[in-house]
């Protein structure tokens, strides 16, 4: 998929529309093939955390009345000891920080680190990390060499520490062979879901040149190009037939309705009844003060709610706030690092929020379904992630 995306990067001005469409279509088939296999992890934990519920039930059954540690046990058992790309980037950043403290860090090393990992910050539509972002992240790390060395050792030792804890818990719970396989499955699914998302981000950044080329050939903005449906791409590239008014209407209000294997894009007046029905189905009683979800990482915290869904929301996030999000993504990791706790509407134990919160060791409750509707910016809340409970104070 990445090799196909590379053929859509660079200077594309001399490539005719038919060839450009063929390259895009080849990438699309590779992308769909990857998603066919990787979507399993998403579906199993999307609306209802199916696999998580099975494993949680097993833990509860073995612990008897000692339910206070169910969340902690589940978090440990479901975590993968394998290092993600994000984890590798953070270890490399610690190496740079040690050099910076010693006065040995060169501009070339900053440049190389940015070039290697810029796509992590890109998300779905950018911007990618630049050298200034990397310098800012370096400045957020401890300022003394001993502190950085302690942090580095902790990160290097983390896989072994986690594996030992998992072995001890599996033994204490007397998990049989089938139950251990279930636990191993959720670890693997979580890891590969995260890696798949990162591969997508790399492809998105590589294809920025392609998006800009479509925009240039059709006198469109990049935001308008994002509104072009897959079955409209041939007309846009080969015949340069695009209706900017329709794209503008989609930008304001639109929905995609799937019927079996087919879909239809509705916008403007046609979309409004569907949007209204969706909003109506999501109505939440304003009197609700307490909600529940699934423990992603245990712990307790009190703080002020900050709603953060996109990179542009991060400016309101302060250290010690409670981050509440529909679902987190790599673009908002800097905000996640400032949080005392993280709460999301969606996501199972294989979600981005679950995996990052474990790496950062920040209390996290996922899959609440209604957190963003119950809590608003400025609310004071108590998060008991060990029990999966969030209360408005």
Structural class: alpha/beta
Going by CATH, what is the homologous superfamily of the domain at 290-392? Phosphohistidine domain
Shape descriptor reads globular
Q: Let me know the average pLDDT.
A: 91
CATH topology of the domain at 290-392: Glucose Oxidase, domain 1
N-to-C CA distance: 48 Å
Q: Describe the largest sheet.
A: 8 strands, mixed
CATH architecture of the domain at 290-392: 3-Layer(bba) Sandwich
Helix content: 40-55%
The share of residues in extended strands comes to 5-15%
Strands of the largest sheet, in order across it? Answer: 3-10-9-5-6-7-8-4
Number of strands: 10
Give helix and strand order, one letter per element, not per position.
Answer: HHHHHHHHHHHHHEEHEEEEHEHEHEE
> What is the top-level CATH class of the domain at 290-392?
Alpha Beta
Please give a structural write-up:
- The structure is a single chain.
- The protein is α/β, with parallel strands linked by helices and 393 residues long.
- Among the domains are: 243-281, no CATH class; 290-392, Phosphohistidine domain (Glucose Oxidase, domain 1, 3-Layer(bba) Sandwich).
- 54% of the residues lie in helices and 12% in strands.
- The chain has 17 helices and ten strands.
- The protein has helices at 2-6, 17-44, 50-63, 70-78, 85-102, 107-117, 131-139, 145-172, 177-206, 208-218, 222-225, 233-239, 244-252, 272-281, 333-338, 352-360, 371-374, and strands spanning 254-259, 262-267, 290-292, 294-297, 300-307, 322-325, 341-344, 364-366, 380-384, 389-392.
- The strands form two sheets. The protein has an eight-stranded mixed sheet with strand order 3-10-9-5-6-7-8-4. It has a two-stranded antiparallel ribbon with strand order 1-2.
- Helix 2 (17-44) packs antiparallel against helix 12 (233-239), helix 3 packs across helix 4 and helix 5 (85-102) runs antiparallel to helix 8 (145-172).
- The longest helix is centred in the middle third of the chain and has 30 residues, at 177-206.
- It is globular.
């Amino acid at each position: 998929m990445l090799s196909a995306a590379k053929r859509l990067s660079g200077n594309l001005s001399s490539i005719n529309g038919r060839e450009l469409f063929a390259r895009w279509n080849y990438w699309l088939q590779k992308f769909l093939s990857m998603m066919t296999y990787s979507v399993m992890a998403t579906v199993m934990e999307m609306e209802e955390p199916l696999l998580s519920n099975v494993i949680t039930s097993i833990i509860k059954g073995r612990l008897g009345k000692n339910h206070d540690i169910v969340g902690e046990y589940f978090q440990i058992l479901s975590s993968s000891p394998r290092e993600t790309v994000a984890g590798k980037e953070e270890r490399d950043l610690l190496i740079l920080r040690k050099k910076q403290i010693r006065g040995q860090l060169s501009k070339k090393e900053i440049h190389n680190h940015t070039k290697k990992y810029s796509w992590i910050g890109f998300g779905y539509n950018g911007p990618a990390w630049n050298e200034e972002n990397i310098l800012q992240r370096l400045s957020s790390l401890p300022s003394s060499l001993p502190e950085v060395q302690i942090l580095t050792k902790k990160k290097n030792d983390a896989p072994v520490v986690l594996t030992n804890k998992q072995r001890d818990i599996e033994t204490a719970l007397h998990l049989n062979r089938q139950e251990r396989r279930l636990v191993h499955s959720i670890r693997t699914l979580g890891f590969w879901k995260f890696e798949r998302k990162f591969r997508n981000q790399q492809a998105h950044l590589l294809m920025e040149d392609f998006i800009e080329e479509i925009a240039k050939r059709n006198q469109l903005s990049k935001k308008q190009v994002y509104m072009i449906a897959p079955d409209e791409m041939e007309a846009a590239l080969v015949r340069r037939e695009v209706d900017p008014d329709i794209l503008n209407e989609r930008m304001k209000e639109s929905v995609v309705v799937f019927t079996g294997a087919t879909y239809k894009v509705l916008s403007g007046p046609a979309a409004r009844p569907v949007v209204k029905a969706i909003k109506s189905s999501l109505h939440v009683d304003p009197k609700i003060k307490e909600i529940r979800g699934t423990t992603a990482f245990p712990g307790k915290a009190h703080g002020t709610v900050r709603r953060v869904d996109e990179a542009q929301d991060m400016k309101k996030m302060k250290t010690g706030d409670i981050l509440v999000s529909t679902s987190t993504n790599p673009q908002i990791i800097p905000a996640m690092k400032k949080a005392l706790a993280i709460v999301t509407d969606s996501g199972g134990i294989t979600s981005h929020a679950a995996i990052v919160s474990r790496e950062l060791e920040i209390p996290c409750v996922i899959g609440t379904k209604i957190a963003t509707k119950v809590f608003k910016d400025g609310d004071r809340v108590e998060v008991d992630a060990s029990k999966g409970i969030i209360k408005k104070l």
